[in-house]
Design a protein that fits this description.
The longest helix has about 35 residues, at about 135-165. This protein is mostly helical and about 300 residues long. It has helices at about 25-40, 50-70, 75-100, 105-135, 135-165, 175-185, 190-205, 215-220, 225-240, 245-250, 250-265, 270-275, 275-300. The N and C termini lie close together (about 10 Å). It is built from 13 helices and no strands. The chain has 2 domains: about 20-100, Four Helix Bundle (Hemerythrin (Met), subunit A), CATH 1.20.120.1760; about 135-303, no CATH class.
Length: about 300
């Protein structure tokens, strides 16, 4: 691959949501609504962390509808609450940026709330399926839940690494100051939930090891804006077309899988989809991005 020429250099916009990382639902529906919600909440004084808690409540409400209402109203009502969850889950970050309260700790709160809501859903689905499947319902729930963790971690790791390498957006994994805030700041949240960040970063390192020629090239170009932007433009061109794979592992497809499984009459269909087809996508994405990073790194090293 050839490096970008001078005519290709363009200063990246300081964005956390570049178009290439957004699927149509995010771009046209969730993110615009999330921004509007954040604008409405800004004058109220509600904190971004409280909005994160509200997103967890939305996910728990979806779960209550899925398991507590009669078919098919359960699928429709639960699906609507999951749509609300997507919007509220995006509003906490928008509100944090609007009010100058964005921080690594806030990112940790958001992640913990998402995992809490999903954990409640998996337990509720296992209880629901236990009536028919018995102990197998719990085996499938654990396997699907573990798959969910790996799939989400991989998708988020790829997204955040792309933002860091292509746009210079800092991330907890590659910004020491952010790590210091999360692990050294003595708050009740970091004391009791800091383990989540440790586990998240540990799994992220297993999925995508930190040692990478792309990061080394960016480190060597530090202090040279033109060279840094040439590398970032190169990364954008090489990686952007393949970022659809992490999108397939994200929350949007899972929302439709969950609602579809409930319409079919059992959450077990969702468990089986997570364990089978979605894990196959995970394997393909891991192998593909590992090879792509090696090729891009080799091209950068050969300059």
């Amino acid at each position: 691959m050839a490096m970008a020429g001078a005519a290709d250099i363009r200063p990246p916009e300081p964005v956390n949501r570049p178009r290439e990382l957004q699927d149509p639902l995010n771009f046209y529906f969730y993110h615009p609504l999330a921004k509007r919600l954040a604008i409405l909440l800004r004058p109220t004084g509600i904190s971004p962390n409280l909005v994160s808690v509200m997103s967890a409540i939305s996910l728990c409400a979806a779960t209550a509808c899925f398991v507590g209402l009669a078919w098919p109203a359960n699928a429709l009502a639960g699906f609507c609450f999951m749509l609300l969850w997507h919007v509220v889950d995006g509003a906490d970050g928008d509100l944090a940026r609007m009010t100058g309260k964005a921080s690594p700790t806030g990112e940790l709160v958001d992640g913990v709330c998402d995992y809490f809501g999903n954990t409640v859903m998996y337990f509720a689905f296992a209880f629901l399926a236990d009536n028919v499947w018995g102990a197998w319902a719990w085996v499938l729930a654990v396997a699907a839940g573990a798959s969910h963790v790996m799939q989400t971690n991989h998708a988020e790791t790829q997204r955040r690494l792309y933002l860091a390498r292509a746009y210079g957006v800092p991330w907890l994994r590659n910004a020491q100051a952010d790590k210091d805030e999360v692990f050294r700041r003595d708050t009740w949240f970091t004391r009791y939930f800091g383990f989540w960040a440790v586990g998240y970063l540990w799994l992220s390192e297993r999925m995508v090891p930190a040692a990478n020629p792309i990061d080394r090239a960016l480190a060597e170009a530090e202090g040279d804006p033109a060279e840094t932007e040439r590398i970032r433009a190169f990364v954008r061109r090489a990686h952007a077309p393949t970022m659809f794979l992490p999108k397939l592992l994200g929350a949007n497809p899972k929302t439709f899988l969950i609602a579809g499984a409930i319409l079919l009459g059992s959450p077990v269909w969702y468990f089986l989809a997570m364990i089978g087809p979605v894990n196959l996508i995970l394997i393909v994405s891991i192998v593909h991005h590992k090879r792509l990073a090696a090729r891009v790194g080799a091209a950068l090293s050969a300059r």
